[in-house]
């Protein structure tokens, strides 16, 4: 009997690559995202036998619950949840940031992730499943302009550790996946579609790819049930740690 994965934010980047990797490995996959046309493209590419798609905004709790209620019987036994949906918006320092962008990041990266996790906990406990949360190195290492985005990812990391503690004895595994520089649509979204900014960031850096992260998710999800990876921090070799900022003068 194939195992079943639910992955959010499946219309691009890590999510789309994860759909492909788990289908390739023989799993059933529930793929969710806002963009129905991209979800349909996944169906066109992979077929509908082991893939179910659900289009809704992850911030809409009612739509989320309706999508879960509407799952076909064959997809209801969810074994692994990958909370991938998330975004960064803006690069301005906090004193010049757009509050609406802060709110959108919190609603997506924090509130929606917690809401979906809460809804699926009974099923995941019953099936002794796993929760893989996509955090970021931004949750551990601050940088100018990271402000609320970094804060939301720090929440994801700490929430994962808290879940691990609360789920002690249930057999449910919980992992915080914390990627560094990976070339996806991330920077395009963050900058409002500035392709030049994206090209500048990744150019010559040999960044990670969406497929690299999907492979790590596949590995963690398929570990023996007595093993748990608490946190997995991943960077390209080209990326490492910067020094502290020092302001001199008045």
Annotation keywords:
globular, Rossmann fold, 14% strand, seven-stranded parallel sheet, alpha/beta, 250 residues, single chain
**CATH fold-level label:** Rossmann fold
Query: Into which percentage range does the β-strand content fall?
Result: 5-15%
The unreliable regions are: none
Structural class: alpha/beta
Amino-to-carboxy terminus distance:
67 Å
Share of helix, binned? 40-55%
Discrete helix count? 8
**What is the overall silhouette?**
globular
When the domains are counted, the total is 1
Topology as a string of helices (H) and strands (E): EHEHEHEHEHEHHHE
What's the CATH architecture name?
A: 3-Layer(aba) Sandwich
**Which whole number gives the mean pLDDT?**
96
Question: What would CATH call the homologous superfamily?
Answer: NAD(P)-binding Rossmann-like Domain
Radius of gyration: 18 Å
Question: Can you tell me about this structure?
Answer:
- With 250 residues, the protein is α/β, with parallel strands linked by helices.
- Helices cover 42% and strands 14% of the residues.
- It has a single domain (4-234), classed as NAD(P)-binding Rossmann-like Domain (Rossmann fold), CATH 3.40.50.
- It contains eight helices and seven strands, in the order E-H-E-H-E-H-E-H-E-H-E-H-H-H-E.
- Strand 4 (80-83), helix 4 and strand 5 (130-134) form a beta-alpha-beta unit.
- The N and C termini lie far apart (67 Å).
